[in-house]
Amino acid sequence: MTPSPALAAVFGDVLLCLGAGLMLGALRDAAGLALGDGGVRCFCWDVLTFVLAAFVLCGFAAGASGSGVSRWYMAAGLGLGALAWRLGVSGALHRGLRRLLWVLCLPMRAVSHHVVAPLRRVLAARAVRRKNKSRKKPKKQKNMLQKERKILYN
Question: What is the dihedral of CA 38, 41, 46, 51, to 10 degrees?
Fold first, then answer.
């Protein structure tokens, strides 16, 4: 069993893992924004993020940590960083992007409302007029039934 590292090294490891967790949360959020967050896709993004978190944690423990092995506080720091992104930044980011898209789509809505909709109404009215004009009055059909017979009484 390896001895526990100094408190300063533990604090440094936790801060670095918090930063890595924030980056993983941002990466997960970016994947969801760019490629969609349906039911199956959300599960896939979460599994991929979990695998990437394990890879980052093992790589960090082997290369940059003070102790050289992965410890529970590193995983906790990574998870807290991802949770902090989800609770603190993700909601504001999504609201900001939604508002930005709304503002960017305003000119298209104005064009649609003032140009496309009246043009669509004019074209629909023209099509109705053409349809009514092209209708020919049906010819009066001959009576295909037999004529009524007169009954003669003797």
Answer: 180
